[in-house]
């Protein structure tokens, strides 16, 4: 109990520190994933906006709303798509701020507990040699050209 008296949130042992660190890293990865997903969605909104902007505003178009395909005019759809894109950009900005805060927390945690990540360059190079084609990404065309 002597270790816990000063700060009730202090981890008790190395395993607890490792678990907390792992959960922090997982949280950062989840935020990265969400930001990427939302950026792709915002990009799709931009493509739609650029495609329908030059068209006649009274022209019919279809929009998916909550899983239902709805027929509207471009004049009605364009502002809604633009608002959605702006909303996505705001969420991306907030998530990016949160990500920076989490990164600082992790850096402080690493410094406080002197955490060094063992697997990194050394193991990654070994795995790269063993699994050449598996973790290299998408391969387009023949490998030996």
Automatic annotation (TrEMBL):
One cellular-component annotation, GO: prefoldin complex
Domain of life: Eukaryota
Listed GO biological process terms: protein folding; response to cold
Coiled-coil residues: 78-112
Region of interest (Disordered), residue spans: 120-145
Basic and acidic residues: compositionally biased ranges: 120-133
Gene Ontology molecular-function annotations: unfolded protein binding
UniProt KW Metal-binding keyword: no
Keyword Chaperone: yes
Keywords: Chaperone, Coiled coil
Family designation: Belongs to the prefoldin subunit beta family.
Family matches, as PANTHER family: PREFOLDIN SUBUNIT 2
UniProt-recorded name of the protein: Molecular chaperone Prefoldin, subunit 2
């Amino acid at each position: 109990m002597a270790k816990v008296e000063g700060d009730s949130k202090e981890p008790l042992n190395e395993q607890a520190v490792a678990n907390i660190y792992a959960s922090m890293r997982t949280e950062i990865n989840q935020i990265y994933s969400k930001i990427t997903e939302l950026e792709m969605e915002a990009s799709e909104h931009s493509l739609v906006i650029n495609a329908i902007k030059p068209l006649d505003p009274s022209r019919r178009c279809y929009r998916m709303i909550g899983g239902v395909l709805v027929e509207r005019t471009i004049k009605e759809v364009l502002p809604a798509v633009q608002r959605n894109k702006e909303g996505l950009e705001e969420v991306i900005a907030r998530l990016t701020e949160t990500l920076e805060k989490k990164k600082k927390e992790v850096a402080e945690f690493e410094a406080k507990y002197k955490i060094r990540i063992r697997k990194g360059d050394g193991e990654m190079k070994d795995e790269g040699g063993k699994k050449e084609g598996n973790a290299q990404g998408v391969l387009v065309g023949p490998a030996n050209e």
